[in-house]
Specification:
heterodimer; A: mainly alpha; Histone, subunit A; 3 helices; about 5% strand; flat; B: alpha+beta; Arc Repressor Mutant, subunit A; 3 domains; nine-stranded mixed beta sheet; three-stranded antiparallel beta sheet; 17 helices; about 20% strand
Chain lengths: ~100, ~500
Amino acid sequence: MKITRETVLYVADLAHLELPEDEVETYRQQLDQILTYVEKLNQLDTSGVDPLAQVVAAPADSATGWRSDETRDAGISAEALMAAPDASSPFFRVPKVIERES
Amino acid sequence: MESGISPDVLARYEAIIGLEVHAQLKTASKIFCACSTRFGDPPNSNVCPVCLGLPGTLPVINRRAVELAVRASLALNAQVQERSRFARKNYFYPDLPKGYQISMYELPLATAGWLEIEFDGQVKRIGITRLHMEEDAAKALHEGFPDSDRATYIDYNRCGTPLVEIVSEPDLRTPAEAQAYLEELKQTLEYIEVSDCNMEEGSLRCDANVSVRPRGDGKFGTKTEVKNLNSFRYLARALEYEIERQIAALEQGERILQETRLWNVAAGRTETMRSKEHAHDYRYFPEPDLLPVMIDAVWKQEILEAMPELPAAKRKRFVAEYGLTGYDARVLSATRELADYFEAVAGAGAAAKSAANWIEGELLRRLKESGSATPAERIAPAELAALIGRVESGEITAASGKRVFARMFETGEPAAKIIEAEGFGQISDSGEIERVVREIMEREPGNVAKYRAGNEGVLKFFVGQVMRATRGQANPQLVNETVKRLLAG
C-alpha cells in the first residue's frame, strides 16, 4: 500500500477539496493503483537514456516556442470584470483572504 | 531596540544572511502573453484570457524575457544551463488566478554565480546559488475601500510580468553587508538594462533568510524568512531587528522557530505571518504547457558580446585610466549615464580630477535640486569641459566659474557666450585687480618713483602691465582707477 488515508486527506486539504468520509477510501485505493502502475516503469533500465523534459516537441524544435516581445491590447477588460463573480469596476473583488483552518 | 541586549552579548553571536531578490524584467509585454507590462495604467486594463487564467488558454514564452534573464545570469558570473524548465508552483491565492505560479524549480535558468561587494575597503565575493524566471502575481489591495474589512480588491495588470529571482548563498554576515550586496546587485541590473529596479514601484523586491549562531560555531542556526524589505533602509533595519530578536530568544534559552516573518514598517519590527505548517508544500511539477528553455552556445555568446561594462569593472578602470580615487570612481559610476557623461567631459579635454570635482559638486547638487536626472540635457559635456578649461587657465575665477555654471545649467547656453554676455570674462573684482597692481608696483619701484616725481606718462605703462598680467580680462576702467589711486600712495 503506497497511499495511506492520511495522505489522501492531506492532498485533499492542499487542493481545497472536502471529501465525504466514504470517498476517502475510494480515492485511497484509486491513487494507490495509479502509483503501483506507474512504478512498473522502474523495472526498465534507463541508465543510457537522456532525461526527457517535454513530450510535445523535440528539443531541436525549440525555436517554435518563442514569442517576440510585442504588446497587443486584448481589449477584454470590461468584459472580464462583468463576467467575474464579483467586481467593483475597475477592480475584481474577492472575499477577504483568510487562512483556512486546518 | 527594546530587547536591550548588551553589545557584549551581541558580539558573541554572528548572523548568517542570504537574500532572495525579485527583479521585474524590462520587457514591453508580459512573460506568457502580449499584454503590456506598463506600470501605473488603469487597474485591470492590461489583462487577457492568458494572464487571467481562463480555461483553454496556453502560455507562450517571451523570447526577450529569456534574453534579459540570461544577460543577468552572465553578469552575475552564473552558469547558464543549456536546458532549463518551467514548473508549476501550486497554491491558492487570488493574486494568481490559475491556482499556480509558473516558475522554475529543479532546473533553474542558471546556477553557481557570484557578485563581489566592496565593504570597509575589503572586497568580498558573495555566492549566488541560482537564478530563475517566473511570472509576477497580481496586486491585491487589502485596504482603502469601504468594505475592506471583508473584501480584497485585485488588479491583474502586474500578473504575468516577467521576473527573475536571484538567490544568494548565506554568505552575508551583517545588515550592512546585505545592504552593500543589494546595492551592487541593483546597480548591476540597472547597468545591463535588465530591470528598472525601482523599489517604490516594486520592480525590485527583497526577502531575507536570517539565522544567528554563537561566533565560532560551525553549524547554522534555525533560520527565519523575513519578507517585505523593499527599501535599503528597511532591509538594514529589519535585519538588525531580527538578528537581535533571535539573539535575545537564544539568550533566554528559547528555540528559534522556522517561520516566515513580515517586516512591519510602521511598528518597526518583524512579525509572524500566520500560516499553516504545510502552506509551503507547493507540489511543484514540470509545466506541461511549455517547452524546455533551450539556450544554445551561439545565443549565449551573442548576449555576452552585447554586455556593457559592469559597474565593478568601470570603477576599476576609472581609477586606473583617469587616476581617480576609489571614492570618485564610485560616485561617478553610480549610473551608466553619469559615468558616460564624466567620460565625455574628460574626453573633451577637461582634466579628469577637475571634471570629477565639477560633476560631483556643482552638477550633482543642481541635478538634485532641480529634480532632473539627465546631465547632458542641461549642459553638453563639451561645454562643461570648455568652462573647466577657462577656470583652470585662470581666465575666469573659480567663483565666476560657479556662477557661469549656474547660468549654463539654467539656460543651456555655451560657456563662452555666457562669459562674454555677462562680463564674467572681465576681472571686475577690485580686490583681485588691486593685488595685481601692487605686485607690479613692487616689481617696478623705479617707475613708481618716476610717477610720483610727476611723470604721468608712466600711468599708461602700469595699466598696460596689468592688462597683460590679466590677459586683457581686467575691467579697464577699474584698472585705471586702481592704478591712479595706488600710485598716488
